[in-house]
Specification:
There is one protein chain. The chain is of the alpha/beta class. A 6-stranded mixed beta sheet has the order 2-1-3-4-10-9. A 4-stranded mixed beta sheet has the order 6-5-7-8. The longest helix has 12 residues.
């Protein structure tokens, strides 16, 4: 099962529609035990990443994701939540980067060289990130690759 975290109904539903093109086994939710049983997890895009980060803590998903050892994909703002920090708050820390800016307008910077991250896809171990949603076909192709892992 591919589990899409529901911290933003619209973002989760958009991600589910995209994943459903490649897999029938998709679930949207915010249950810690369901995450543990999933084969893969997706952190979808959201227009409110600050609130999404708070919801990850509120639903005890922050800790569950930190110990989860299976593939995780962050899409757009979901990727920003996978950085070490988001607007100077501790984020999940899967990527050595920081995201800063407003909810719907943020930039991501590499912590090693403070350069803006412009790649379409980043991977580190089991963690995948799509920082930019500017090319819809590229996003679709990366989601397909992730689903077919």
């Amino acid at each position: 099962m591919i589990y899409i975290i529901d911290y933003d109904k619209e973002g989760a539903e958009n991600a589910a529609r995209m994943v459903a093109q490649f897999s029938d086994d998709v679930k949207i939710g915010k249950n810690e035990m369901e995450i543990v049983g999933a084969e893969k997890v997706i952190l979808p895009d959201t227009t409110f990443p600050k609130k999404a980060l708070k919801k990850l803590h509120l639903f005890n998903l922050y800790s569950a994701l930190r110990i989860y050892k299976k593939p995780i994909l962050g899409i757009g703002a979901g990727f920003a939540l996978m950085c070490n920090e988001f607007n100077e708050q501790n984020a999940l820390g899967f990527f050595n980067c920081k995201a800063k800016g407003n909810d719907s307008d943020y930039e991501v910077f590499d912590l090693d060289n403070n350069q803006k991250i412009v790649e379409q896809k980043l991977t580190v171990s089991n963690y995948w990130g799509i920082p930019s949603l500017s090319d819809e076909e590229s996003v679709r192709q990366i989601v397909k690759e992730f689903v077919e892992l």
